[in-house]
Each structure stands twice: as C-alpha cells, then as structure tokens.
Amino acid sequence: MRNPHDATDFKRQAQAAGAPVGAIEAVSRYLRSNRFEAAFGTTRGIAMQCGVSNAAVVRAAQQLGYSGFRELRQALRQSLGA
Q1: Which member of 8, 51, 61, 82 has the greatest number of CB atoms within 10 A?
Q2: Which domains does the chain have, with CATH numbers?
Q3: Under 8 Å between Cβ of 73 and 50
Q4: What is d(CA 77, CA 82) in angstroms, rounded to the nearest whole number?
C-alpha cells in the first residue's frame, strides 16, 4: 500500500492518466495538510473544501495507488492509529 502523503510524482501521474491536474493537486494538498479530516471525512466534504468534484477526490486516491477513496481513508485512519 502506498503512503497517502507521498505525492512527489503526483502531478506526472495525474497528467499521464489524463486527470485534471489542478483539481488533483488541490486534493493532494488537502490530504497532506488535513490528515485527520481526510481520515474521517467524505468525498463530498473534501471536494467542497477543495472546490473540486467528488470524482476528483476519487481520482486523487487512485493516482496515489488506492482503489478509491475508501481505501485511502482506511490507510489514513491506520496511519493515525484509529
């Protein structure tokens, strides 16, 4: 499982996947800065905070190597010891 905070090549991955990089980057920044909120939040809540679509939140999780937001959220919870 990938580290949800390791986004060094995130922009390149998003571009290769044809994802809207600005939205994906916004979600990535949010995840790095708001681990607790992301671990217990929803795609809708994160999307609203980032000003992006729910789909962009899911795509961000997938670009980080997770099957979707649920798997990313579980990894964040585990990293917090929850």
Answers
A1: 61
A2: 10-79 (1.10.10.10)
A3: no
A4: 5
**Can you give the pTM of this predicted structure?**
0.73
Angle between helix axes 21-33 and 54-63 (nearest 10 degrees) is: 80
pLDDT at position 64 is 87
Write out the H or E segment, with its range, that includes residue 58.
helix 54-63
Residues 6 or more apart whose Cβ sits within 8 Å of residue 48:
none
Maximum alpha-carbon separation in the chain: 34
What residues of the chain score a pLDDT lower than 70?
1-21, 82
- Burial 62-80, CB ≥16 within 10 A → b, else e: bbbebeebebbbebbeeee
